[in-house]
Amino acid sequence: MEIRSTSEKDLDVFVDTVFAAFGKHPTPPDEDGSGVWWSALEPERGLLAVSDQGRPIGTACAYSFELTLPGGATVPVPGISCVGVLPSHRRQGVLTAMMRRQLADLRERGEIMAVLLASEAVIYRRFGYGPATYTRRLTVPRHRAALTPPRAGQEPTGSVELLRLSDCRDLVEQLYDRYRRAQPGAISRPPLWWTRQAGHPPTAPTQRYIALHRDADSTPTGYACYSLDDSLAMLVDEIVSLDDAAYTALARYLLGHDLVTEIAFRHFPTGNPLRWQLADFNAGSLTGETDWLWVRLLDIPRALTSRSWSADGELVLDVDDPFLGERTRHLLTVRDGRAECTPTDREPDLSLDVSDLGSVYLGGTAPSTLVRAGHIRAHRPDAAARADAMFRSEREPHCLHWF
């Protein structure tokens, strides 16, 4: 078996192999190659596994994104995708070989971490990835969707305008970019995704309505992307807002939509206040809670010093990376929200797998939760609480983008 890098001439073979691995058939793209989810593939960042007989049997690729960290810093990250092996060649080491080659390539490029969305949660932990953001669905029946009246001083301002996605794609792109730069766990949507209409709505060409919010000065501050199906159920792909007032105004518009049976918010963040704003707290049904963005650290010192921290302190982290055959120990020192990370031979406060460090890195998973789960070993009575205080993010990490 050979694992080789791909180029533009391999695109058709790459796409056919990806679809065959998942038992599906590709939809023909537009004449210019756009309009399908893989339109934004970066062929030079792909890998193709080829059998001894010269047949393509596996694929993996990376998109070029930016990830927003706690504190607002952004770092380049590869978004791993299109990972698949033909059913005829599974459980023969193909996936492991591709993942090992890919991580080596990423390190050679100087990447400090990688991210992915896991089609199956049991696969990627063994390669060092850990779930770091989560999402769920909130469904509200229309007849129970009333919101509580705003309190004095919290009256809504601004306006909501109804548009078609095709008429305001540039504005939606700009709003998303402003939003993601302030939201930990969010990743960029590069211009190629918009021009090639790749991925899922709102970047995809699928018809959608856009509810656009403008503040009292007529400045756009948020949007909701949604559609209605034949049963008059509303699916809200995403709400992007620059402040709580815009989110509330957009939610009020969606929940007050006439001739709708129910409103389903596809990506409902943990800690979102909307349920508290419903007149009937139990009107909303939360379902489908699942992992979303997974994080894999490749350069632990650079990763830990790239984000901001919510509490000062010291932690000695003993990190095991069995997939790469590495074990490292780091002294993490935080002062005034900034960190230093140096090698140390001091006794550890916490012993953990690199996948667990990925899970806690963005602040969406408390280290103490993984201690209680038996994933992380705390060597001192106060170590878990100290780690919780330090790793916590001011804003819950959340990712909307699909890739």
CATH secondary-structure class of the largest domain: Alpha Beta
What name does the CATH topology of the largest domain carry? Aminopeptidase
Count the beta strands: 19
Portion in beta strands: 25-35%
Structural category is: alpha+beta
Q: Based on the structure given, which CATH architecture of the largest domain is correct?
A: 3-Layer(aba) Sandwich
SSE sequence, one letter per element: EHEEEHEHEEEHHEEEHEHEEHEEEEHHEH
Q: What is the molecular shape? A: globular
What does the largest sheet look like?
7 strands, mixed
What spatial order of strands do you see in the largest sheet? 1-2-3-4-5-14-6
Separate helix tally: 11
**N-to-C span:** 28 Å
Fraction of helical residues = 10-25%
C-alpha-based Rg, rounded = 22 Å
Organism: Kitasatospora cheerisanensis KCTC 2395
Subunit structure: Homohexamer; trimer of dimers.
Keywords: Acyltransferase, Transferase
Family: Belongs to the acetyltransferase Eis family.
Description:
This protein has helices at 11-21, 94-108, 121-124, 165-180, 191-195, 244-255, 274-277, 300-306, 354-361, 367-372, 383-391; strands spanning 2-5, 46-50, 56-68, 74-85, 113-117, 130-131, 134-141, 159-164, 209-214, 220-228, 233-241, 262-265, 285-291, 293-297, 313-321, 326-335, 338-343, 350-353, 377-378. With 403 residues, the protein is α+β, with helices and mostly antiparallel strands. It has three domains: 2-111, Gcn5-related N-acetyltransferase (GNAT) (Aminopeptidase), CATH 3.40.630.30; 135-288, Aminopeptidase; 298-391, Nonspecific Lipid-transfer Protein, Chain A (2-Layer Sandwich). A seven-stranded mixed β-sheet has the order 1-2-3-4-5-14-6, sandwiched between helices. A seven-stranded mixed β-sheet has the order 8-9-10-11-12-7-13, sandwiched between helices. Strands 17-16-15-18-19 form a five-stranded mixed β-sheet. Strand 4 (74-85), helix 2 and strand 5 form a beta-alpha-beta unit.
